[in-house]
Amino acid sequence: MRPEVINLPCNSEEEEVRTLREIHDTLCDVAAQVDAVYGLPMLGCLSTHLFNCITVLNLLLSITLEYQGSAGAEMEGLAMLAIVWALFYFGGFLAVTWSCSTVASECCRTADLVLKALLRPPRNTTTDTELWYQLQMFLQQLLHRRPRFTACGFFVIDLTNIPSMVAAAVSYLVVIAQASAKEEFPEENEAR
After folding, report:
1. pLDDT tens track for 32-57
2. What value does the CA radius of gyration of the chain take, rounded to a whole number of Å?
3. For the domain with range 13-191, which CATH number is right: 1.20.1740, 1.20.58, 3.10.450, 3.30.1490?
């Protein structure tokens, strides 16, 4: 659902663009303050969700490898619970990442709209020239001052973190599976 269009109390289009520039500047300041205040809690939240997701998936892998066959039916409930918890932790990671990414993408959408407004050729009037100048200044501001959220400055929080999280979890689980396979069959490993 998109927000409603706000009618700004301005006398001209140039004043409206100038007011939008001021609003954007204020929003960027607010986003920077939110990033400064909540950077460490977001880092803690993301790292905790990643750690818990890997731990639960490790439990699931252990259950799957250890209890195969007839005992596996008894452990099916625990395996399902592990899957639910893994999805819960992944959902928490996704919620934080998605909300931070949405703010940045909306800023890019605003820049696209201003670019479309600049495609219209200006008429040679002083009003159009001033409007054209204000739009160019707004576009420059949009391109140079984008809101973004970081995890305490370590990395930018956006949707590119999702594949990184999945890759980290899969890599860890592969290492654990290989280590448990070496423990189960030590005589085969020594023959190599």
Report:
1. 999 999 999 999 999 999 999 989 98
2. 26
3. 1.20.58
